[in-house]
Hints:
heterodimer, A: mainly alpha, two-stranded antiparallel ribbon, 37 helices, 43% helix, B: mainly beta, Methylamine Dehydrogenase, Chain H, 0% helix
Amino acid sequence: MAARDSDSDEDLVSYGTGLDPLEEGAGRMGRRSGACSELRSGHCAPGWATERDSVSKKKNGDEDLSEFGIAPKAIVTTDDFASKTKDRIREKARQLAAATAPIPGATLLDDLITPAKLSVGFELLRKMGWKEGQGVGPRVKRRPRRQKPDPGIKIYGCALPPGSSEGSEGEDDDYLPDNVTFAPKDVTPVDFTPKDNVHGLAYKGLDPHQALFGTSGEHFNLFGGGSERAGDLGEIGLNKGRKLGISGQAFGVGALEEEDDDIYATETLSKYDTVLKDEEPGDGLYGWTAPRQYKNQKESEKDLRYIGKILDGFSLASKPLSSKKIYPPPELPRDYRPVHYFRPMVATTSENSHLLQVLSESAGKATPDPGTHSKHQLNASKRAELLGETPIQGSATSVLEFLSQKDKERIKEMKQATDLKAAQLKARSLAQNAQSSRAQPSPAAAVGHCSWHVALGGGMATLKASNFKPFAKDPEKQKRYEEFLVHMKQGQKDALERCLDPSMTEWERGRERDEFARAALLYASSHSTLSSRFTHAKEEDDSDQVEVPRDQENDVGDKQSAVKMKMFGKLTRDTFEWHPDKLLCKRFNVPDPYPDSTLVGLPRVKRDKYSVFNFLTLPETASLPTTQAPSEKVSQHRGPDKSRKPSRWDTAKQEKKEDSVSEFLSLARSKAGPPKQESSPLVNKEEERAPESSTNQTVNKGVDAQAEGEGSRPSMDLFRAIFASSSDEKSSSSEDEQGDSEDDQAGSGEANFQSSQGTDLGETSSVAHALMPAPQEPPPSIPIQKMQIDEREEFGPRLPPVFCPNNKDKHKTKKEHRRKKEKKKKHRKHKHKGKQKNKKPEKNSSSESSDSSDSQSDEETADVSPQELLRRLKSLPLRRQ
Amino acid sequence: MAFPEPKPRPPELPQKRLKTLDCGQGAVRAVRFNVDGNYCLTCGSDKTLKLWNPLRGTLLRTYSGHGYEVLDAAGSFDNSSLCSGGGDKAVVLWDVASGQVMRKFRGHAGKVNTVQFNEEATVILSGSIDSSIRCWDCRSRRPEPVQTLDEARDGVSSVKVSDHEVLAGSVDGRMRRYDLRMGQLFSDYVGSECGRGCGTGREDGGPARGTPASLTYPSLPQGPITCTCFSRDGQCTLVSSLDSTLRLLDKDTGELLGEYKGHKNQEYKLDCCLSERDTHVVSCSEDGKVFFWDLVEGVLALALPVGRGVVQSLAYHPTEPCLLTALGGSIQCWREEAYEAEDGAG
């Protein structure tokens, strides 16, 4: 196979080889029938086949890789798309062949055999009742068309002269009953072939077909007027005699010559009247026997002579165009002097107001009122002021002022860099000068200094001396250096001299001068080069918000039951707004459904990382970061690294239990409005204090999602209090395992958490310290603990204690007990956090109705609508024990 | 002068075994027709992809370049290129004629279960066990996907593409349809309780043949979706899941139109499809048969015995009653009873 492949690969597809022998063709064609029925139908030029075809017949299967195989090398019009209309060129060729063939009309046979292939449009039209030769459109009555156009109607544009179109038809004035309609006339389509030659307009070259065989071409209508005599013997003879002649419009006529009438027109006697008739023949010539061709054309002839040939579809206008009316130029005022001079522009200030006045007076108009400026005296800023625009920052005197701050900086940097080069050169010369002038400063050196100052000073103007301390070891010297820089900035020429210690020797001074100069240069250069190598961070590393999808697929539990009942449809379907990538739309040839949005995928919203319960208290104050939002779980699910997703069986159970919380959250969110970022300072603090615990990044991305979830979860009782937990308690085996392993830390985390919610803070913190997890414990517990400490400084509403009334004391004494009790619930809880799912309102009834046994105290809350619940939450007074 | 359309024949099911090809590439993970149904692709567990003329049984080309078994392949509309995805997490774009790798898209974090071209073969969509669908641009040289559809919660087992939609079935029991024109995502939950403890027994052949790529989940609380497809009229979607059930859903509303049972599909990722004129629902089965159901009535029309083992994959001809099945290391070509080979080459 390989050998064959390589073999066939080397085959070049070359056209022009003869077709296979006949006996071979039958089988092969049949096989390839699907791909190339064109060969059969005769639409492929017969007798042309690729070399490959002829070769491949020996190689079984190679044709699969040829033109019509699976990997075509060339683009071939398949039968489906081939034009079915008759090819004009081929038609002509056939006619030609028919004429020249020994038996004229032999191709008639071919025509009979030609497969009838019609285009789809053709067939469709036919089925709709169309027939060849008719036009397309509704059937019309002929009557109205014969009416003369209303003279009142003006015809604009290129309209055919009236009567010309109808003239051909309907001249026969038969009686047409009213109920007879006619198909519209077939219209020959306008030929829109582009003109790609250099011939004149409407030039037609010699048509060999017509020239040679004389089939009623227009060239033989040269004697146009005499066509009524076409039946004459002479006419026939003429046609026969001309069969091999050549005739053409521009044949033998030079480009610059005026065209002769028709140099090939042959005058025959038949064109002349040979018999004098008695009476007037009715042609109004009264015996004038000039050739017929001159008879009727007399008047139009002279027009045509300079107009040239009239294009198809056009006719000479009967009326001449009305000449354009020429209007005289406007009258100039008498005292108009065609000279313009520019008035000097003088800014209006207090000093030159007099001058202005004089100027304006000289211009012929006195300043009407100093208060109201004339139009020309206002500048842009004043106009803006008048218009009530906010003034642009800074005095807008130069274009540079309008640049953005960033651009300005860039320009400055550039300038600095160029200045620097010059300064370096200067500085070098300065160093030399300094050396030479060490003994006695010469005026030349002073000049050198001066120039150097100017050069360097410009570059240094923006530099801060504080950042770069080249002489930090010697504070005295550093001080002098800084002084030097300051002087430099102020542009003082003797900056160097001034700041040097007067007690130093000349030599020392000289050296220091060199040092300072070099240091200044170095500093400047290092500043600019370094700054060019760094860029600002695009994203804040320590942002406290995560992006989570706005909508999420909701509860699976309900869906499962729906599936069980085979109630597919609304119950099992979630619909989301989804934004395809722009490029994807382009590739799919689909208009972008959201052309204005830059979003891709599901819409996401930013939410605080630690914030789920912040939303509950958001409207009153800045929220307490007491509760860590479980949204990390979400981010974990939606995060970029999909390979890390939990396996399907634990998500499956999670999803069942999440919905009630998520629904509540979504409600709360909708109440609370856009989430705000509040917990950032605390988080930062946290990070500083506990750097050894992985940064909040890793925390949030969740290396160990499970442990993290456990640690950062709010009190279970809180959940239970808010929502009657769902009835199904079953958890998969994996969950149990995990639950066991994480039991301790989770319990402590929980306890901490609960303590933070409703109990004395002082106690809580101590407890929290006591319970502080070992260093090797997962990081999330640390943030919680820190937050509790922070809580003392932060004042704001805590989660109301009413939600965990029975836990308040318990959490210290009965921790163990509670842990056992809640062991199973934990999993549910952390899954609550894991995915906040929006749930349709009608669903909550089902989840709420399935109450668990341990939440009797909160039965009434379960009945209350979530909005009401939220309201109550907010209005509850803080209770301190 | 066009002849009137012949009267539509009653649908015929391909039940005559025309040919059996031993592909010689280990287990055949998938068999796929090309766009016009004249050729087929087989994905082998020996890292190769092969192009065949199934009717004549000739091997046209072998494409090697994958680093692990090939799990799915598709041909472009113009037959000029192929795409394939496999256990090496890569999606490969092949040049049909030269057999060369044109592009290799890397980015999936797990093995690629399914690949599809879009209508104009400008984008390859690949669904992976990493629960994402990635849209790779064949036009630009960008190494990253144009877009990643990561809504699935679990591995994506099946992706199908229409002119403006992407249909994806996932192991999380949901079928998601991304409508590019409307800019919406429709997520239909289809998963249901697995009938019985989904077994782990594999009755498939020896190691040389390899075992079918199974969705190895020790216990499955729901029915993960193994295959989805559009009906040819674009109105319905067919979903098969591991609860040995195929469901026909209304595409627009998600309502259940039909349910087809009787075959066995509890463990492996098996293919299903609709017949060439949407008359029948066709599915592989783990008991070595191919099942045909009448689409409207939902009754079993035919259980076509293919052989011993799991019928791993199947492909239905786009226009004719012609079926390809893959079982073990070979593929079978089936035609209707009345079919007679047109050419003598058979």
